[in-house]
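User: For my dataset I need records formatted as: sequence, then C-alpha cells, nothing else. Please produce one.
Assistant:
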Amino acid sequence: MITHSGIFPKIVNGLLVKSKPTTEDSAIIYLASPYSHEFKHERELRFRAVRICALKLMMKGLDVFSPIAYGHQFSLTFDLPYDAKTWARLNTRFLVASSALYILDVPGWVSSLGVTEETRLARQLFLPVKLVSPEGEVLDEKI
C-alpha cells in the first residue's frame, strides 16, 4: 500500500520538501526524546533509554533514527555542544526524510525544547506523532 505524507512541495525551515510515496517497508521512524540537562549523568541516562527503545523498535522490524543515539557519542568524544539548537539543522533533515515521529515517554519529554520543536515540524510535515514506551510499545496514537 502506497501513501503520501501531506501536501508537498513546501518549504520547512528552509528545506524544500517534496512529495514522496512511502510504503510500510520504506518507512523511517524518527525517535525523539529529551536529552539536554545540566547534569552529565542525566544526559547519559536519557541516551541509554532512547538507545534501548530504538533497539526494541528495530527488533519489531522498524527502521529507526534517533538523533540522541546518533549525536550523543559525537558530543562526548569531540566535546561538542549537546543542546537542541546545535543539532537542529541535522535533526530537521532527518525528520523531513521520516515517515513518522515517535516520542519516547520518559521524564522531561513534555518540557524538552528539542522534542517540542520536532513535534511542531512533524505536524507541519503532516507526519503521524505517537508516544512510545521505553519498551517500544505505542502508548498514544495521537499527541
